[in-house]
Amino acid sequence: MKKTLFFLIILLSLTLNWGFKACQCYAETGHQLWLRMIEPQQEANVMLSDDTFLTPTIYIAIDELSRYWRKDTDIVLRIANLPIDNDGFCISKENNNIFIQARTDRGLLYGAYYLLRRQSTGNIKISSSKPIIESPKFKFRILNHWDNLNGTIERGFAGRSIFWNIPLLNQKNNTILREYARANASVGINGTVLNNVNASPQILSEENILKTAYIAETLRPYGIKVYLSVNFASPKVLGGLPTADPLDEDVCKWWKEKIAEIYNAIPDFGGFLVKANSEGQPGPGDYHRTHAEGANMLADALRPYGGIVMWRAFVYAPNSPDRANQAYDEFMPLDGLFRDNVIVQIKNGPIDFQPREPASPLFFSMRKTNIMPEFQITQEYTGESIHTCFLSTMWHEFFDDIQSERKILPFSAIAGVANIGNSENWCGSDMAQANWYAFGRLAWNPELSSEEIASEWLKQTYTNAPKFVEPMTRVLCDSREAVVNYMMPLGIHHIFAGNHHYGPEPWYAPRGVRADWTPPYYHKADSLGIGFDRTATGSNNLAQYPERIRSRYDMAPEYTLYFHHVSWQNVWNLLCEKYDTGVRQAEGFVDVWRSMKEFVDTERFELQLAKFDRQAKDAWWWRDACLLYFQTFSKMPFPEGSPAPRHRLEDLQKYQLRMDNYTAADISKLP
Ligand code: GCW
User: Fold this and answer.
1) CA–CA separation, 571 and 565 (whole Å)
2) What is the pLDDT of residues 200-244, one digit of tens each?
3) d(CA 446, CA 393)
4) Judging by beta carbons within 10 Å of its beta carbon (0-12, 13-18, 19+), is residue 72 exposed, middle or buried?
5) What's the rounded Cα separation, in Å, for the pair 218 and 212?
6) How far is CA 56 from CA 63, 65, 108, 652, in A?
7) pLDDT digits (tens, 9 = 90+) for 309-337
8) CA triplet 12, 14, 15: central angle to 5 degrees?
9) 259: how many CB neighbours lie within 10 A of its CB?
10) Catalytic residue at 154?
11) Is 365 in the pocket of ligand 1 (CB under 6 A)?
12) Which residue lies with its CA nearest to atom 13 of ligand 1?
């Protein structure tokens, strides 16, 4: 007890110096994310068990609980040698004490956030008879930031980088980093790649390694490791060597020394993420070496420190008859050749983060290599930070497909491309925060349903009132299907505008542009029908899938036009129906949100209303653009009951759908 008192005194003094009071200094700007906890009148009594030593991580756990735990139960934290995962925890109740026990301080922190989440979602009854045991499903739960060193963010829709091109030692930025770490820890995210996969070799300069070390130090107490994306040509560009050939001795030596320098500054550095021989990035292929040879060279250099290599499988060359075939064709022959500290990081689908795609065939067939999925949290192809598109349902669909064939999820790591920037509400919209939250929750427990995640998030972000939570849970859980319906139903994919991935331009095909960067390559509309024939009579992509999943995909209505070219007679009316449904759904979201006014503060209510409104208008634009354009091939009338278009095709082809948050006055001027 004496020891506890001693720690409490340290704690108090630390608190005074801590420098930021989480959750108290902001109005309702969305900045507080799902952590809008209110400090009760009286601090809770949180103790450390006598056999447990205080660490910076445990300090945070105690600080959070003593500030925000409202119950009059005391809480005891204890490190114990339990038969659970290192990041897991066990919560039990004895007499009037709640015990959080874990093997590591990280486990205690996760346990603390677990309790606080239960409190915020109105579910605080902890039973005395049955302890709660939680362990994360995946060992590596990692965000990928596509942040450039100049502070811009590739496919970022929420301002500029919180890591780069800012004076890092500035107090405000330090606060942002801690808030960032805290938000991640609260949902169990334990790793972050700080820079874009289109990586500047300069990321490995002495100065940037020091900056990385500073960031790592700030994130460390929250259980978060840092990783960097590296450019495969770094030995040449940064090191001045004549080659970056992975089998060249000097090249290996250069990487070994660089890695030693990194670990000297950051002893718990996580490792590298690499985009190689993809979209113009350098790679081992430049020297006629394989992906495995490239990845293994880095893996060997990282191994003495326990570092890992996440090697991306996102590869596709121009002039290929089917982009969907390529990653499989290139990586399957390498199965079994990668070191055990390499993880091949595969986008969920074979194309590129479309509103709906089947799972990449690599997940079913690469069985002798560590693999991990890469999801995209940032909504590059699903309405950016303007449209609400809750991605949990998409990620579930992916998990279900993989599990249907492989029984378990065959990976221990998972990555999500972050949607975080320096905008006040982090993600460019309040609803987009739900995707960051959902990624963390699913990386911890992929069995949580989308409804559970949505309702948890809504309760913490807005209010517990059932009249808010129930309808808004439905909105969130329907939102992704709505986006699919009004953008690309029935398996249509990648029919975006030429220079952005927000609006539709199914007709975009200027001369000189790579065919696989134009929509007609994907939709293949002609006088007979529409859709990409990926059966044996076409690209035979279906053959890359094992039997059971192949027959499912072959017949699945949601993938009809992904795998088949279908006659207009058979698909036109259905296509119109889908687009019409999407528009109706988007309009319905506006109505539901309007009726939520009494539950939401004015600032967030109005901003979100403008976004839902915009989403509904864009849905019309998408529907009209796609149907009017496809009608030039089908020559069929809109079916009965399908509303008249609001736009004319010639206007839609003249203007591009704007991506910025234009105002209501702007909207009225649009065609
Ligand atoms: O989705 C596409 C994006 C690129 C991105 C690339 C990738 C980082 O349009 O912006 O580059 O994929 O994942 O490498």
Assistant:
1) 10
2) 999 999 999 999 999 999 999 999 999 999 999 999 999 999 999
3) 11
4) exposed
5) 10
6) 10, 14, 12, 57
7) 999 999 998 889 999 999 999 999 999 99
8) 65
9) 23
10) no
11) no
12) 314
Q: Give the pTM.
A: 0.95
| CA of 373 relative to ligand 1 center, distance in Å | 15
| Cβ(152) – ligand 1 distance below 6 Å | no
- Gap between the Cα atoms of 354 and 484, Å rounded: 9
C-alpha 137/C-alpha 624 separation (Å) is 43
The answer to whether 582 touches 619, Cβ cutoff 8 Å, is yes
- The average pLDDT across 653-666 equals 65
Please count the residues of the chain: 671
Evaluate whether 145 touches 196 at the Cβ level (below 8 Å). yes
Task: For residue 571, report the distance from its CA to the centre of ligand 1, in Å.
Answer: 32
Is residue 441 within 8 Å of 456, Cβ to Cβ? yes
- Residue 279 Cα to ligand 1 midpoint, Å, equals 8
pLDDT of residue 11: 47
Domains (ranges, CATH) in the chain?
5-134 (3.30.379), 140-423 (3.20.20.80), 485-668 (3.90.1330.10)
Distance 229 CA to ligand 1 centre (A): 14
Query: Which residue out of 314, 379, 381, 514 has the highest number of ligand 1 atoms within 8 Å of its CB and is therefore the one to mutate?
Result: 314
Based on the residue annotation, tell me whether 279 is a catalytic residue of this protein. Answer: yes
- The pLDDT of residue 15: 42
- Burial of 538 from C-beta contacts in 10 A (0-12 / 13-18 / 19+): middle
The full 3-state SS of 325-377, as one line of letters, equals HHHHHHHHHHCCCCCCCEEEEEECCCCCCCCCCCCCCHHHHCCCCCEEEEEEC
Nearest C-alpha neighbor of 148 from the set 131, 134, 161: 161
